[in-house]
Design brief:
Layout (H helix, E strand, L loop, with lengths): L12 E6 L3 H4 L1 E8 L2 E10 L2 E12 L10 E3 L6 E4 L18 E5 L16 E4 L4 E6 L5 E5 L5 E7 L10 E2 L2 E2 L9 E4 L5 E7 L2 E6 L5 E6 L5 E7 L7 E6 L5 E5 L12 E4 L7
Antiparallel strand pairs: 1-2, 2-3, 3-4, 5-6, 6-7, 7-8, 9-10, 10-11, 11-14, 12-13, 15-16, 16-17, 17-18, 19-20, 20-21
Length: 276
């Protein structure tokens, strides 16, 4: 990755998404830490190599931790959503003059949609600490998983222009009167929610500190019910979860706290679906 930098923490190459029209444009989108801050870049995959690097969004505040970085295209492919962290500065969450601590919505060329909630800004929602999971359900609603601080992690149903409370509100604790409540919380000891995917309106979350994968059903009232736990302590800390065309899961481990180099893995998990 040209210009990519680590932070001896949570910086580096953070998010990746393939263009919805990849068969014709060959575009790959990558969010990463650079010397000037976190940024979104685009390249073309031609003959097995990436080239034509273009910065679409730059200057997002960076720090050792809380850099966010999940990318997800809207179901219609028109918009690209980008999660950012608060760069260890909680006040950024409520500051609409910075892209840190936000979920952003842009066009695939990096321009800002005119119907975004704050004119001229990429911000779609705010008051976030460190969102690392994004996905859409069957009704086109955006969901996000978010790291808490000392007490509660959360999953949120994201609304246009919504305020999710950080730093005053963590989960359901603190001053939360002016913010949207989470749809699910876990104690931080059982969470660390990172990657998030939705399959047939079941929401799956890969967790780091919790070392497990949660499954929750989205009911008719947009609540998360019927929680199940999978892979608990079977593979350690889990970071990313993706779904392939066959409906199987791909997960990554993230043993970033054990001081052992080179022991992370990519896991392929076969998923069995009930008969139609």
């Amino acid at each position: 990755m040209p210009d990519a930098q680590g932070t001896n923490g949570e910086g580096g190459v953070l998010g990746i998404a393939v263009s919805p029209t990849f068969t014709t444009d060959k575009y790959v989108f990558i969010y990463h830490t650079a010397s000037r801050g976190n940024q979104l870049v685009r390249a073309r995959l031609v003959d097995g190599a990436l080239s034509g690097w273009t910065t679409l969004l730059g200057g997002v505040p960076r720090n050792r931790y809380h850099n966010g970085g999940r990318l997800r295209f809207s179901p219609d492919g028109r918009y690209l959503f980008v999660s950012t962290g608060d760069a260890q500065n909680g006040s950024y969450g409520q500051n609409l003059d910075t892209n840190a601590g936000k979920i952003l919505r842009i066009f695939p060329d990096g321009s800002i949609p005119p119907d975004n909630p704050f004119p001229g800004k990429a911000i779609w929602s705010y008051g976030h600490r460190n969102v690392q999971g994004l996905d859409f359900d069957s009704q086109g609603r955006l969901w996000a998983s978010e790291f808490g601080n000392n007490s509660l992690d959360e999953v949120n149903l994201i609304q246009r222009g919504g305020n999710y409370g950080w730093p005053g509100c963590e989960g359901t604790e603190g001053y939360c009167d002016d913010s949207l409540p989470p749809k699910r919380t876990w104690p931080t000891s059982a969470g660390g929610p990172s990657g998030l995917r939705i399959v047939n309106d079941y929401l799956f979350v890969a967790t780091t500190r919790g070392q497990r994968m949660y499954r929750l059903r989205i009911d008719g009232a947009a609540n998360l019910v019927d929680q199940q736990v999978y892979l608990q302590e079977a593979f350690g800390r889990l970071r990313t979860i993706e779904v392939d065309r066959d409906g199987d899961f791909w997960l990554t481990t993230t043993w970033d706290l054990d001081e052992e180099v080179g022991n992370d893995r990519v896991l392929h998990v076969d998923v069995e679906y009930p008969p139609a």
